[in-house]
Amino acid sequence: MSPVVLIIFNRPDLVERQCERLLAMDLEQLLVIADGPRPGTDDVDKCKAARDIIDSTAWTCSVQKNYADANMGCANRIVSGLDWVFSLVDRAIILEDDCLAHAGFICYCNELLERYADDEQIMQICGTNPLADIQDPYSYRFSHHIMCWGWATWARAWSCNDVSMGLADADIDALLERYMQGNQTAIEYWRRVIGMTRRGELDAWDYPWQLSVWRHGGIAALPNQNLVSNAGFRADATHTKNSQARLANLPVHDLDFPLRHPPDTRYGIQYDIRFIEQVPGRVRNTPRQSRASLVRRIASRLKRMLVG
Fold first, then answer.
1. Does residue 78 sit in helix, strand or coil?
2. 152: nearest Cα among 186, 187, 127
3. Which residues does residue 122 pair with via DSSP β-bridges, in sequence order?
4. Rounded distance, CA 253 to CA 273, Å?
5. Which helix (H) or strand (E) covers residue 102, if one does?
6. Domain ranges of the chain
7. Residue 305 neighbours by CB under 8 Å, 6+ apart
8. Which of 16, 30, 18, 25 is nearest to 64 (CA)?
9. pLDDT tens series, the chain, 308 aa
10. Which one-letter DSSP state was computed for residue 308?
11. What string of DSSP letters covers 213-239?
12. What CATH topology corresponds to 1-97?
């Protein structure tokens, strides 16, 4: 069984809920990453309470901890924590404190981590599928677009992560043109968040990771049923503060075993088209929408009013 990584910070209620779930999954190895308290906040007590829950849980597996004494920030802490993880193990299943997984998630990740261990094109196994309504004869599909709410990867893939996003603007534009399939709204969104992340205005680790996946021509496997629900859409979240967001608390469903494997890695093109159209910009509270996007949304609302 692959090691499970749990990333925690200052929300002990979510840590407690997550630990209860993990305890029932009969893990073999747990690695815990924690950021330190932010100065001038009440994080000291909250971070301690979250860590105390880890210590007080009656784990039946080995537990290793990588705790920061001072606050490193979301991106630096997660990246440095995962660097530590992959210095110890060659693969891992990764959950943040607010990502609540269905029991089948661990089995699904374990099987695919083993099946594709040597396939360098496949860089991630995703647990969240925001478009699970697409009918599919197979247990999962492949996509160029990743979701990091419950996921798994290998040390070989994580070694490709370029947190600095050290590409020329022209090279980034070429990647966006390719993977956004000409969708200008999506291209504008990605240009904006990449620029903000590079300038340190957005404390994000997943945008650099997604860019790294594209840079290496990587793909991800996504289950045909959503296996992870993000319960962290609330006021004390770092990014996902809107509890009414469309992707908040997605329902989870069972995945039938044995898994039905798709015939090849090209399977999933139609999923990518819908993902580009519907998901970017809805995952977190991001910068203002582009003017073109705003105009489209206003026009759509006016049309509905006139028709209705």
1. helix
2. 127
3. 219
4. 23
5. none
6. 1-97, 100-228+245-308
7. none
8. 30
9. 999 999 999 999 999 999 999 999 989 999 999 999 999 899 999 999 999 999 999 999 999 999 999 999 999 999 999 999 999 999 999 999 999 999 899 999 999 999 999 999 999 999 999 887 777 789 999 999 999 999 999 999 999 999 999 999 999 999 999 999 889 999 999 999 999 999 999 999 999 999 999 999 999 999 999 999 988 664 565 545 444 456 666 888 889 999 999 988 876 767 888 889 887 664 454 444 444 444 444 344 334 433 44
10. -
11. HHHTT-EEEEESS--EEE---STT-SS
12. Rossmann fold (3.40.50)
The rounded distance, in Å, linking the Cα atoms of 202 and 192 is 10
C-beta of residue 124 within 8 angstroms of C-beta of residue 221:
yes
**What are the Cα distances from residue 160, in Å, to 5, 82, 172, 173, 292?**
19, 13, 16, 19, 34
Bond into 262 cis (ω within 30):
no
Residue linked to tokens 């920030």? 73
C-alpha–C-alpha distance, residues 91 and 112, integer Å: 11
